[in-house]
Structure formats: C-alpha cells, structure tokens
Design brief:
The chain is of the alpha/beta class. It has two domains: 205 residues, Rossmann fold, CATH 3.40.50.450; 140 residues, Rossmann fold, CATH 3.40.50. The chain is 34% helix and 18% strand. The protein contains twelve helices and 15 strands. The strands form five sheets. Strands 3-2-1-4-5 form a five-stranded mixed β-sheet, with helices on both faces. It has a four-stranded parallel β-sheet with strand order 7-8-6-11, sandwiched between helices. Helix 1 runs parallel beside helix 11 and helix 4 packs across helix 5.
Length: 409
C-alpha cells in the first residue's frame, strides 16, 4: 500500500518568501517518499480543495522547485477566503474531507496567518469528528508579524528590510532637494492593528512613525512635522495604514470591508499630506508601499528566507511524526549574537490571537522605536538573499502547474 499524499495551500496576502515555505514542504516530502507519496497544491489556496483543483507538484523538476526560493508571490495562487465556523457551514468542511479522501490526502499543510491558523485547526477537528485520518499542520506566514508564540513571522523580515531601505533612500532624496522643493515625505506601510512594519522603518531613523498602537493626535503630529522642518529643513514620516484616532476609528477608512470582514483602509498618507498642506503649507510628497513591500524578492532578508524554508520543512517533519493541529514557531535564543530554533506550538493557542507591537518597543514620545525595538528588529533584516538575473531582470520559477483529474462532482 502506497503512502498517503499531502495537500499544501497558500492563504491570504503573499510575501517575498512564501514560495520558500512551499519549497520546504515539497523538498522535505520528497526526502520522505515512504511517508508521503505526492504533494498536491491547491489552486488559489483553500479554494483549490473546495473546487477539487489540485496541482501535481510531483511533475515539477527538483531545479524548478528549488527556484521557488527566489520567486515572489504565491506560485500556486492564494485567496482571501474565510471558512465560516463548523456550526455555520459544516458542509464546507465536509467537502474538504471528501476531496482529501478522494485523492488519498493524509496531510494538510496550510501556509498563512491568523485566519489560516483558525481554518487549519477547524479542519483537524472536523477530520477527527468524521473519523478521517488527517494530520493538519499550519505553516506560519504573515508580513504583519502578528502571530503569537513565534518570535517573528516568515515574510516579515523581508518587508522590514524593504521598508527600512526605502525609508533610508527616500530620506536621502528628500534631504538633497529640501532647500527648494519637497519638505515633507510620507511613506504609507501595511499594518492594520499592529505596527510592526511601521516600526521597521524606524531602523532608518525617520523623524516620525505613526503606529496603530499610539492614538493619533493631530496637533501634536503637526507640531512635530513643523519642528523637524524648521530644525533640519525636511521631515520623513512612516505611517501605518492602521493609524487610529483616540476613539479607535482609522484615519483612513474607506467604508468597505474585505473577505475576512476587515475594514478596508484607504490612504492614510494622502490624508496626512492634505492635513500638512492645509495647516502648515509645506510642500510634500507621499508614497504607498502597498504590494511593492511584500513582493520585493530582490531585496529579501536572508534570515527571513532561511526561516520561511525551515518552517515548511519542519511542518512536514511534524506531520510524519504524527503531530496534528500544531505550527512550527520561531524561538529567539538568548544572548547578544542572534540565533533561533523551531519549536512546536498548538494551534489552539495561535488561532485568532493577534500580537501587537509591545509598548516597550515604542519610544516614549510615541514617534519612534526604542532601543529594545531596534534590538528586536535589526537581526530580522540581516543578510542579502541571492537572486539570479537574466537580461537585467530577476529569474523566477516557471512551473508546469498541471491539475490532476477530478474524481468528484
């Protein structure tokens, strides 16, 4: 009797290194053919399972799978699709198990953030209820860096590096032109409730950082901007998209919600720029990092790449060892020299828990990072992950992405 197959899917917003986690899952599975026959990948995340659209990764060469480590985006497609609770839509979970049963899937690897951890936990529960032998392992990923237990999240280190470098370089540009041109530059970064990415900009020493964790005070903010301009001729601002007023409302709510029920945010940088123009009259420029910050594989952190691959490979080891409803967590080791290892975390303590930026990582005035924050962030951007090029452009993986035949209606 052959070994069971595995199902792997990517979920939510992708990162510069999520495909490295995919490579970790696939390569570690190939190293254990007695335990795992094939790895099927879901087309567009969990939708691939629900629609029975599964890519056969066994048809991909070893070199093409290795190339995933220098390929951004989600090679198999991702989605923002939140499964409802077991009570609300049990049939949807039963459909997953039906597809897994039809294709002899005994391992479920779900690569995502908070909502994905919750889905992975629920799938493990419904499988147990239905008496289906399935090992469900969550593979952590999120640029927001807001998963609990793990010291940091794969994907965050590369975003942090991109934002720190962009803030440094844009700052040099503004400084050189400030005498006769732009006085204030604002870069808007991701981070709905947690200011980890905004904090990363602090590694480049901007004048002001706006965190979701610190209530926005317009008078104080404008005074700080004006003071910086008068003192040095220019002001650099890193603003989290989730910057909030004292009453908890976002500075830039668009009035709509996404597939997960989260309020859509619509342009905190432009809101701040208009405020500065009308109240202070300073010339400004602003930019929204948006997808650029999470897709910049050419500027990925080697530390981040190593960790992304490691959690994928470790997830397979957990599954083969019979573990279920767990996640590989990155643990920072004590000492002055940065080191880390992986430990197993139960999904019951991960799902739907959001880790915000600790107060001690924020400077006393609320506009920068503290020494403790810098000490935490700095190692995560260490190392420049190699990227092959051809004709001046990065080389990315080019997979066959062949779907297996459907067996169900």
């Amino acid at each position: 009797m052959s070994a069971p197959n595995a199902f792997y899917a990517q979920s939510g917003g992708v990162t510069a290194v999520i495909n490295a986690s995919a490579a970790g899952v696939i390569e570690e599975s190939r190293r254990n053919p007695q335990q795992i026959s094939k790895v099927f990948a879901g087309k567009n995340g969990i939708l691939g399972a629900l629609n029975e659209e599964l890519f056969d990764t066994s048809l991909e060469s070893d070199s093409d799978i290795a190339a995933l480590k220098h390929t951004p985006g989600g090679i198999f497609g991702s989605c923002r699709y939140k499964l409802k609770s077991l009570e609300e839509n049990r049939a949807e979970y039963e459909r997953l198990i039906e597809v897994f049963k039809a294709h002899d899937v005994g391992y479920f690897f779900y690569n995502g953030g908070n909502d994905s951890a919750d889905t992975c936990l629920k799938v493990s529960q419904i499988a147990k209820t239905m008496g289906y032998p399935l090992k469900a392992i969550h593979v952590p990923k999120t640029v927001d860096n807001d998963l609990p237990i793990t010291d940091n999240c794969p994907g965050f280190g590369s975003v942090a590096k991109y934002i720190a470098v962009s803030t440094l370089e844009a700052g040099a540009d503004v400084k050189s032109m400030a005498e006769t041109s732009t006085k204030v530059f604002i870069i808007e970064v991701m981070g709905r409730h947690a200011g980890w990415i905004a904090a990363a900009g602090g590694l480049a020493n901007p004048d002001i950082i706006l965190f979701p964790e610190v209530p926005f005070d317009q008078s104080k903010f404008l005074a700080a901007v004006d003071s910086a301009v008068k003192r040095q001729g220019h002001c650099i601002v890193v603003a989290s998209e989730g910057a909030q007023n004292a009453d908890g409302s976002f500075l830039a709510e668009s009035g709509t919600v996404d597939a997960f029920g989260h309020k859509q945010l619509g342009g905190v940088a432009s809101t701040l720029a208009n405020m500065i123009q009308s109240e202070l009259g300073h010339k400004y420029h602003w930019a929204v990092a948006d997808y650029l910050q999470r897709s910049a594989r050419h500027l990925a952190s080697q530390t981040d790449l190593d960790q992304a691959y490691a959690v994928g490979a470790e997830a397979v080891k957990y599954a083969i060892a019979g573990k279920n409803a767990v996640m590989p967590a990155i643990i920072r080791e004590p000492g002055e020299t940065y080191a880390w290892h992986l430990e197993m975390a139960p999904l019951s303590k991960v799902a739907n828990v959001e880790k915000i930026l600790p107060k001690e990582y924020i400077r006393e005035d609320g506009y920068g990072i503290s020494d403790a924050g810098r000490k935490y962030l700095q190692p995560l951007i260490f190392g420049e992950a190699s990227q092959p090029y051809k004709d001046g452009l990065p080389i990315h993986a080019n997979l066959k992405l062949k779907l297996i035949p459907k067996k169900l209606g």
